[in-house]
Amino acid sequence: xxxxxxxxxxxxxxxxxxxxxxxxxxxxxxxxxxxxxxxxxxxxxxxxxxxxxxxxxxxxxxxxxxxxxxxxxxxxxxxxxxxxxxxxxxxxxxxxxxxxxxxxxxxxxxxxxxxxxxxxxxxxxxxxxxxxxxxxxxxxxxxxxxxxxxxxxxxxxxxxxxxxxxxxxxxxxxxxxxxxxxxxxxxxxxxxxxxxxxxxxxxxxxxxxxx
Length: 211
Description:
This protein has 211 residues and is α/β, with parallel strands linked by helices. The protein has helices at residues 2-17, 21-36, 47-52, 73-76, 96-108, 123-130, 137-149, 157-174, 177-184; strands spanning 61-65, 84-88, 113-119, 189-195, 202-204. It has a five-stranded mixed sheet with strand order 2-1-3-4-5, sandwiched between helices.
């Protein structure tokens, strides 16, 4: 109990004073480590926490993830109410609406880490690879560059395309004038990641880039 209390206190202190991008990423990954080992703490999911957040929010991280029902960021990263600003869309793609949402959290809520989270066996990306994109044309169009980049992949093409797509979307976000300005000031970092269903672990696909 003492160990849990210490962790909670440390998290509350960090939340009160803000996090650097490195601290925010470390907090995310530590939460995922707990989840993958079945040691989730289920932080800040109480009625008291709900009351605290009625008039304001200050999520330390932005997750641009897939709509897939198996990839709920609050669960995967063992985070509580108000910790994460989440944008979910099939294939974790970046279009105008997704970009506006991400920029809002980075600019006005002071989130310091932005993660594009792809995941194992993504149906949207598999649809693009196999040419079954009827009724998801808008999403498929954004995934196509990643699929084209892996055309010569002889094995594990789906996994490679999922990872390539996440990295491409992360780079697209870094190129946003709004986000690149925050990155230059070291207020924000953007990373790509991949979630493995079997292990429950999130794999970072790149390191924090400051520029």
